[in-house]
Amino acid sequence: MDGPPLPERAIRAPRGGAVRLADVAAAAEVSIALASRVLNADPAVRASAETRKRVLDAAAALGYVPNIAAKSLRIRRNGLIGLVVHDLSSPIHLELMQGARAEAAAHNSFLVLGDVDELLNDDDVFKVLVNGNRVDGLIVQGGHAEFGQRIADIARVLPTVVVNAPPRAEQDRVSSVAPDEPAATRMLTEHLLSLGHTRIGLVSGPRDSMTGRLREEGIVSALGAVGLELRPEDRVHADWSANGGRAGFIELASRWRAGTERPTALIAGNSLIGIGVLGAAARQGLSIPQDVSVAAVHDTWINEHLVPSLTTVSLPLREMGVVAVRQLLTAPDAASRIVLSEPPPVLHARDSTAPPA
Amino acid sequence: MDGPPLPERAIRAPRGGAVRLADVAAAAEVSIALASRVLNADPAVRASAETRKRVLDAAAALGYVPNIAAKSLRIRRNGLIGLVVHDLSSPIHLELMQGARAEAAAHNSFLVLGDVDELLNDDDVFKVLVNGNRVDGLIVQGGHAEFGQRIADIARVLPTVVVNAPPRAEQDRVSSVAPDEPAATRMLTEHLLSLGHTRIGLVSGPRDSMTGRLREEGIVSALGAVGLELRPEDRVHADWSANGGRAGFIELASRWRAGTERPTALIAGNSLIGIGVLGAAARQGLSIPQDVSVAAVHDTWINEHLVPSLTTVSLPLREMGVVAVRQLLTAPDAASRIVLSEPPPVLHARDSTAPPA
DNA sequence: CTGAAAGCGCTTACAG
DNA sequence: CTGAAAGCGCTTACAG
């Protein structure tokens, strides 16, 4: 009444070289359940140190690595975090990515790369990433005004943290990690003031960018503190890119009339814009910093190699990535809004800023 | 004799809003197996068009997305590809990443970010990524001489393709996708020759880089075709970075004696090196292109914004990413060695190159 | 505290 | 061709 004999080898033998928990348990002569508990450091386990060691040794000897699919299916988590960026080519966000990646790795998690546009426009990608249990949470690069509501919708089903941008009003369940923007531009402005500049212009980010607004606030407040102001005619909006910076500078300079006063220094909304400003100014025959000083937000490796090297203020981008991941891993359901004021912005004074002529 | 009643709701009801295949099958009034087959477009299915539609409609109506962990556990694949890069901050490799990411998405796969150093030095990461069924395959950024054997070892257990570098001798089971390096530098050299330069120098990559060697080959062959040569004293090695380029230029220029001949043009091993060369030359008081022309391999968005803008040749980086993913997805076990000669390199002549003075 | 058993949600031989 | 059932490899209530 035993039925046909079971094909034991097919059940027991590791397939394709994959060692299973059952193999470890057999080698250590304990039950699968106990092996699982020891390996997962279950505090309730009271097995003797000797037994525990037998399990650990067996796992090591066999090179056991848990099957992640099986584990995920059981515990309903998969150790993956979606990192959804808008523009992979920006060196600014890479530092953030590095920080996030390293922190995830430290927690045995990995980062899955997503694209903002694809996430928001491609329904398949959206479904898989958001509803498909693909990732345990999402880190979304902020600053996309049009998508505020969509991100809020995503956050309802999946822990989500927006990085590098303050959350919008409708995103009440969205966590965020943002740097202290006004502090950065305040520092830049004070640097220019200390050099003797009294009229400072701004090539800002896009008109509807909250980040851009906060950076402007820092400038206005630093100027206000010494009785100066940011004149409307000294400010233009631009894309967060070198092309934007170029266009912004050209627009700004077109307002300058020979013989009349104009700003002696410009702040760029970010260092990509700064690169564009530097290039455009040179092509218009202006010398930097003799004719105009230029300073920008965000420091990357490029800035010191530019001619002239670009003065910047660095924000804790890497830390933002770290904190975002930590937030997702430790408090996925808390809608926390973190403004990183530590470490504080750091000024990198370089050749692009000098006293006015 | 029925035992206690089963808690039906706990079994049937979707948990946490997750719709299961069983829910779709129930809604469409078919078996789970048939629902699975219809949804996976099993060609053996002969169900009436009407039945098929019922399944598809039910899935759509319920917003069904397969549980990826369950599916992975069954089919022993998880739709993830590890992208292991060395230096996330290089804009050069980002284009490759973008191509890989997009191609993966087109195949319902995602990219998991890894770090070369971590993979090779951190045993935990290695085990999880390589042995843990985390990813279906690995794309590794090439050019790490020290790790040739290690990558060969990885490829024995996991489909692996090295991108942007030719495979090393010991990597017999490793696939690779590399651009046509000599074609790129040949094009750059011919551009400089056509401007009238007859003595051309090279700030190459690291001494042991195969990529660097191939790029040098292109220069040598283009020079040889017109009876010229690359003089040993006109070549230095450098890291693949702006800092490397700076150091390389300084070393090269230190060999130049006033009143004697020196190269009138320099080729940079890549555009990061090129940025460093540009900056260092300017800081030594040399005008580019008047005193020396500079051209580099790889085009990125930065180059046109530099002052002067940097002449480059672009290689099909994005396509490399695409092909690498396609290779992994369609022929994971073939150890293919692809040299992408299509699309061919494209010259971007800019302000950093001009006829010699 | 530990083990046997159930079950996570799928796919796919297998039998009909 | 289709359905019932087994099973992928884990974790964890549950009972002992």
UniProtKB/TrEMBL annotation, chains A, B:
Keywords of this entry: DNA-binding, Transcription, Transcription regulation
Entry keyword Cell inner membrane: no
Chain ranges of the HTH lacI-type domain: 19-75
GO molecular function, one term: DNA binding
One Pfam family matching this protein: LacI
Name of the molecule in the record: DNA-binding LacI/PurR family transcriptional regulator
Provenance organism: Microbacterium resistens
